[in-house]
Design brief:
Helix content: 25-40%
Mean pLDDT: 90
Distance between the termini: 52 Å
Number of helices: 7
Strand content: 25-35%
Shape: globular
Radius of gyration: 16 Å
CATH topology: Fructose Permease
CATH superfamily: Phosphotransferase system, sorbose subfamily IIB component
Length: about 170
């Protein structure tokens, strides 16, 4: 079946993924594309402990993900692929096409320079621009934390939040 969900969520493997998405999609594997986790054996072991027995877990950096993604796209596995960084997701998409036609956004936490789009989604203007470019390239980008939530189209959400092109106090 290949890649059944490609998800942007800076928490990577957590309850919504394991108890929601894995079950709803009958996933047989979870791949984490993250350089920090790929270089940290302890974090990898914690993530593997959170996943039910029988679900394979792969962890690679964005730079080393092309072979894994190609293999998953051509396999009989039902794979969930997780990214924590917008930049990595877009970089890998540019290099490989990601072998998917839609991207799910679960959550990205607040940090300096990011603006609120939903209670669980904060993006910088640059991250928003990168995701909108994916949408323009024909990749559907949806915001949906769990499979039981209503899907929100990313461009409509951005338009609603007026994040792109909104005037700041300095512009006035």
């Amino acid at each position: 079946m290949s890649i059944v969900l490609l998800r942007l969520d800076d928490r990577l493997i957590h309850g919504q993924v394991v108890s929601g998405w894995v079950k709803a999609l009958y996933a047989t594997s979870i791949s984490v594309i993250d350089g920090d986790v790929a270089g940290d054996a302890f974090q990898q072991s914690l993530m593997r402990m959170a996943v039910p027995e029988g679900i394979d877990v792969y962890v690679v950096s964005a730079e080393n993900s092309a072979g894994l993604l190609k293999g998953l796209a051509e396999s009989a596995e039902r794979a969930i692929v997780l990214f924590s960084q917008v930049e990595d997701l877009c970089k890998v998409h540019s290099a490989t096409g990601l072998f998917v036609d839609s991207i799910n956004i679960g959550g990205v936490r607040f940090r300096q320079g990011r603006e609120k789009l939903t209670d669980s989604l904060f993006l910088s203007p640059e991250e928003t621009r990168m995701l909108l470019e994916l949408e323009e390239a024909g990749v559907e980008v949806e915001v949906r934390p769990t499979p039981f939530d209503k899907s929100l189209g990313f461009p409509a959400l951005v338009k609603q939040s007026s994040q792109i092109g909104a005037k700041t106090e300095e512009d006035v």
